[in-house]
Structures are given as C-alpha cells and as structure tokens.
Amino acid sequence: MLSKENIFQLKLNGGEAVADLVNSYRDIGSIVFILENLGRLPYNFNGNFLYGLLEHSHSQIRLNAVKNIGKLNGKSNIDKLINLYETEKDTSVRREIVSAIGRQRQKDNKKYLYEFLNDDDPKIVCQAIRGLLVFEKDNDVEEHLKPLINHQNEMIRTVIYKEYFSIKKNKNNSFPHTETYEFLKNTIVNADVLEALKYVPDESVHLTFTSPPYYNARDYSIYPSYKAYLEFLSDVFKEVYRITKEGRFFLLNTSPIIVPRISRAHASKRYPIPFDIHPYLIEMGWEFIDDIIWVKPEASVKNRVGGFQQHRKPLGYKPNPVTEYVMVYRKTTEKLLDWNIHQYDNETIFRSKVADGFETTNVWKIDPCFDKIHTAVFPVELCKKVIQYYSYKGDLVFDPFGGSGTVGKTAKSLDRLFFLTEKEANYFEYMKTQKNYNRLIKERETRFLSLDAFKENIK
Ligand SMILES: C[S@@+](CC[C@H](N)C(=O)[O-])C[C@H]1O[C@@H](n2cnc3c(N)ncnc32)[C@H](O)[C@@H]1O
Q: Most buried residue, 153, 194, 237, 339, by CB count within 10 Å?
C-alpha cells in the first residue's frame, strides 16, 4: 500500500529503494504519487532512475522526474535535461526544465539560461531571467538581460525595467506617502478641472473616484465630437495620473450612453464609453486592476425593452440597461501593494480596517440616487464602499467632476480628507448648502474657493 510515510522511509534508504518501488508500479497515478511525495532529497540520494523517466510517454511523469532531478544538490546531469528541452512538446515540462536548471545556481549553467532567453514562451524567458538574477552584479548576465527591455512581451519588459532601469527614489527627499499639502485639504474649487490641476503638485492625492460628464447626455456636457470628448477625458485623467501617489488607485464610473435619434428616419446611437476610454488610460500608464459592475433595480432605469415586449421580433431586442461600470486602475509602480500599506502606522491600518459585510464579488447591487438639483449624483453607498476599500483614514480623496459633492461629504464622514473641482457655479453653490460640509466642522473647515482664491492659498 503506497503512503507518504512509506515513501519517506524508502527515500532515506537511498535512491535504489525508491527506484524499485517505482518499477513495481505500472499505473501513472501511483508513479506520479511517489514522485510528488519525495520532498527534499537526502544528500547521497542516487537519482539515476529519474533520468530513465525523462523518456516516459506520460508528461506528468516526465514533469515530476525533472522536478526531482532539480533537487539533486547540484549533481544533476544537465545535458539530459537539455536533450529533453530540445524535443519536449509539453509547455509545463519545458518550463520545469528551465526552473530546475535555474535553481541549481551554478555559474556553469549560465550558458543554458542565456539560450532559454530566446524561447518563444514568455514564461520560459521569465524563468531563465529568475535563474540569472541570482548572479548579482555579474556584467555578463547584465549584458544578456538588459536588451530584453525591448522584448515584445510586457511582463518581461516590466521585470527588466524594475531590475535595471527604474530610478530608485531617494526616500529622504520625497514627500511622505501618507501626507498631502495643506492647501488641498477639504478644498472645493469652482473651476475647470484642467485649470485647477495646473496648481496641484505631482503625487499629492491618494485616491480618485469620479463619474465624468456623459457625452452630450446633459446640458453640462456638450462636446463637438465623441473623439473630442474622449480626448478631453484623457487630458483630465493624465493629470489625475500625475497627481496620484505611487501605486494608488483611480476608480472611474461610466456606462455606455445612448444619444437619441434626431427623427424617426434615423437611428439612435450608443457610445461604449468605458471600453473606449480604457485604451487611453492604459496608454498613459494606468494599470487595469478590476471591473466592478454596479447593478441597479430594473424599476429604477429607463424602459427600453417595452417595444420588444410587444413585437418580439429578433434583432429588435433591447434589454434594459441596469449596470454601470466602476473600473479600477492603479498608478504603475514596481512596488507591491504591501509597500503602500506599510507606509501607514499600525494604528491607522487598524482604524481603517473594513468591517464585515463588505462586497465579496465584483457585482455590487446598489439603488441609484436621485437629487432635485443635480441630475447625476453618486449614491452615498457606492462612494462609501469605494472610499473604504481603496483608501486609509487621513488620505486625500479627489473628484475632478465634483457635481453635488457626494465624494467630498462621504470622504469626510469616513475620516478622509477631500479635494474637489466643479466647473458649474450652480453646482458649486449647491455644495455649499449640503449640510455635511457645514456640520461636523471640528478640526478642518471646508474651503469653497474660486480659482483665484485657490491660487492665493497655495503655500
Ligand atoms: C456626472 S456629474 C458628477 C456628479 C457627482 N459624482 C455627484 O455625486 O454629485 C459630472 C460633473 O462634472 C462637472 N464638469 C463637467 N466638465 C467639467 C470640467 N471641465 N471641470 C470641472 N467639472 C466639470 C459637471 O458640471 C457635473 O457636475
């Protein structure tokens, strides 16, 4: 009867005992079980039987044989692995060969790893890079790796950029990650966002959450063309990128929009804004993280399916649009999220922890919100989730298209700071009347500023 304990004992008796055990089985499952459970191999383990298994017809057996050959304490016969690499068709086995050779950390193996850098499989190239990076400050290795900055695969380019080309920031000179500028804190500026952002320094906001004006959907959003509209948004989001702190998030709420037909002789047109703006965002450096779908109750949206309900003719089907997108992007950095988190002290991390009942999927069911003055406001519930999941207490949250100020008041209620810009004077005035801005003025009042007053406030 095969068992892990049994295999463990036989392994200590030497490779021959394990070889006999393998030979006594014919079925693939048992042989794979033995090979998978060999674990760490004793120093004097005789692994000769493993080379015979490299010729086995079943790829799982070849794969596990390669894995164990890689554990033979630098005594592996690399030539046999290379022979297999040259004929092997299974990608997992090929990758394992490269990984096994890399793990040996032998200078003599560099020549093989250099060869693997030319493989068509990006994962093989990445494995070879990993194997070579252990030879720190080795000029020969650098000369082989640096040219990969032009590799066609983006993962490979990113690894090489991080290792050789990124400018390491001087910790002492940079503004602390958790801090921001006084003149931005709890400030609302009545101005075109692009004008206001000219005065905002690089890397000063922790989170941006916004819903842009919709293309020709309401009277505040008339653009000469869809292209001009996308380019305007692109200009704004480039600026958002500049003022966002390293590795921090940008959440963009949009949905496809319909522009009604001009007469019965014409068709209406749908513009897929989330999909059309996405390539611009990637191009300017935002890294795509998630697509959150905000689902509204069917009764709350405009009925488009009514006609179909009557005629039931295929092609004329028009479902009621109950979803909007909240696209999640992160400012590109080679640093992991842990780096961002560790910028905060333990108390802030503890106080910012998200309570039970958080969304566990990317589908969020939230009722829309209707407002007498502003026709397109965020539900507070949506803002709360975004701010709680993507910022820490004390962070600065930005909304370039402030509207009625939902992001501001929600940020404040969650102990975050906010900075908003809003072009329209009537919405700016409306924000002033919102009770949450004027109530709870404990440590920091909300500043409502014209562009000129904002400029004067800069210190
Ligand atoms: C969809 S609404 C945002 C509503 C907001 N999320 C809320 O909860 O109230 C978009 C807002 O962007 C504003 N806006 C449009 N173009 C702007 C620009 N160039 N600069 C600043 N604000 C602008 C509009 O006046 C409108 O209030």
A: 237
